[in-house]
Amino acid sequence: MELDRNEVEQYALDHWADFQDYLKHPSISAQNKGIQETSDWLVATFKELGAAKSTKWEDQGGNPVVFAEFKGNSDYTVLFYNHYDVQPPEPLDEWHSDPFEPTEKNGKLVARGVCDDKGELMARLGVVKYFNEHGGLPVNLKFFVEGEEETGSRHVGLYVNAHQEELQADACIWEGGGKNSADHFEVVAGVRGIVSFDVHDKTADADIHSSLASYVPNAAWRLMDGLESLRDPHTGRITVKGFYDDIESLTPNEKAAVDEMDFDEESVKETYGLKQPLVTDHPREELVNGTTLTVNGLSSGYEGEGVKTIVPKEASAKLDCRLAPNQDPQKVMKLLQQQLAANGFSDFDVHLNVAEDAWRTPMEDPFVQQALATAKNVYGPMTKFVPNTAGGGPVRPFGETLHLPVVMVGIHYAKSGPHAPNEHIRLNDYAQGSYYLADFLQQLGTNK
């Protein structure tokens, strides 16, 4: 069957509201809110669309994973990864509409999670519905939809390992993806890793009157001294021994793709209102194959209004490292602890929050090349290939355990605002992305 682009795109626009109840469920994993209701909705919706199997997996703990399976007209099988949990909507006073009441305005669809990433699953469900009414699916489809992505996907690896047989496929299409700041579509083949941790320092049993700062230690100063000891203030380079050792160089093809990535420094400065220069002269390569040590937040002593003159007894910081492929989050965490001890801060308590591995599918993989070729046909020659995102996700079990090539293609754009108030997508992107996915699946159906 040859697809009519206008027909598919119009179908997507006409039918997105068929799935709008998905956006109305406040499935906030951080608050354990709406998880069961949302996963129940997914199971029922997959069944309504004719899934041969639609069920919840709860055998490995955590929030349930929804698994669904559809039979297609070929032997080729695509596994989709999505997540149904979303970030909390706060601050509520910055929203222009109810975050859990999908609102269409000026060609945009606004709701919490519509970009990250409920809207993408809605588009995928719409494509299933379209094919159901137009000759059947060109390939077999499987869906793995988890409910803990926004809190670290702690159980994904366990579920993938326990359900390897059900999850067997030829390739995986991940969540995320869309158009960059230049409005060029991107095909992405991986993620960076992450390790997130807290550091706590205690220097006394109680806060002390600040007049005694002449001789008592200050937990806030000590924490800052310890963190500063991990970084060269002049170059920004992390001084942790072994921190960069496991990073592998990009291949020539990857390096060429990175060099062609869109990056407009002035636009970035304007978008984020940056008040200082960029911290690197090589932002493209750093986003793909660089590693970071970031202070996410600091807390110590009295932080209320007015004056309270104390020497704080304790101080805490939240930090994360974004990691390149081949870096082990657990190893990096250990190196950081060892360096703090070597620098004289062995009394610091370091607590791990989240650890996820990086993963990258080789650019030369036929599945990646088909995704890129289809994208250039749909979106034009300015389509970009990105070896991996700057962010993370639980991709490694799908690549390593299931041995699947993975690409990320989606429907958002650079200003969609995931995790922020007024998160949204453009409906035109939703329509284009639906046609791209339908065309891509059609192409894959000829592979077997």
Keywords:
alpha+beta, four-stranded antiparallel β-sheet, Aminopeptidase, 2 domains, 13 helices, Alpha-Beta Plaits, 448 residues
Chain-averaged pLDDT = 96
Shape: globular
Query: Which class do the helix and strand fractions yield?
Result: alpha+beta
Mind summarizing the main beta sheet?
A: 6 strands, mixed
Q: Can you tell me the number of structural domains?
A: 2
Helix content: 25-40%
Question: Can you identify the CATH superfamily of the largest domain?
Answer: Zn peptidases
Using the 3D structure, state the CATH architecture of the largest domain.
3-Layer(aba) Sandwich
CATH class of the largest domain: Alpha Beta
Runs in which pLDDT lies below 50 for 5 or more consecutive residues are none
CA(first)-CA(last) distance: 16 Å
Question: DSSP strand (E) fraction?
Answer: 15-25%
Topology:
Blueprint: H1 5-15, H2 21-24, H3 35-48, E1 53-57, E2 65-70, E3 77-83, E4 103-105, E5 108-110, H4 114-133, E6 140-146, H5 156-162, E7 171-174, E8 178-179, E9 185-188, E10 190-191, E11 193-202, E12 208-209, H6 219-228, H7 252-259, H8 265-272, H9 283-289, E13 294-300, E14 310-311, E15 314-323, H10 329-342, E16 349-356, E17 359-360, H11 366-379, E18 384-386, H12 396-401, E19 406-408, E20 424-426, H13 427-444
Parallel strand pairs: 3-6, 3-7, 7-19, 9-18
Antiparallel strand pairs: 1-2, 2-6, 4-5, 5-20, 8-9, 10-17, 11-15, 11-16, 12-14, 13-15
